[in-house]
Fold this protein.
Amino acid sequence: VFIAQSRASGSHRDVEDEELTRIFVMIPKSYTEEDLREKFKMYGDIEYCSIIKNKTTGESKGLGYVRYLKPSQAARAIEECDRSYRAILAEPKNKSSESFEHDYYSSNMRQEPRGNTLLFCGHPEFCGFEKNESRIQESVSKRLSVVSRLPFVQEQLFALFDLVPGLEYCDVQRDPHTSSGYAVIQYSTAASAIYAKNKLHGFEYPPGNRLTVIFLEDGSDSSE
């Protein structure tokens, strides 16, 4: 498995340098560049580390870059590092770094899926649901309906929704007349179902195919 090169990009080496070896992470503001290097050197050979600082005060913004020598090392760091670092591939340097930092911060603080990374709680202060009118008015239950343009594989869908504790069953249903996917998911508590819907509605599985996750009536008292 390897990452395909965009047709619009230059040479393979340019793409590798620019897009596949540099990761962007959220770190404690107390971290120095040496601390950052120490935490991430186990995943591969680091070319450099840098911490983003406030241009006026010189204080750390709690964000940093780690550049590896190989794309496989950057990929391993994203996959294996603690989820509290919120590690992702960095935008190429020729793009606006400030807008990238803003998008990254706002995305992670809202706890929404970014690309195909499920951002489960690494720090208590990042947990909790946004309070908005539509969610309060929505009829919640312990049961979810999952719809997709592509058919589901029972074991894979079960493994995906089992990331949220309390999964009771995953029932994939097939319509012989269409190729779309449909499944019913049930959790032991409404809280787990709410969390799963919040995380997985709009999640791309497989990449390029967004899941639609809605509540199904299960006969329980939704005010609970």
Observations:
- The two ends are 46 Å apart (CA to CA).
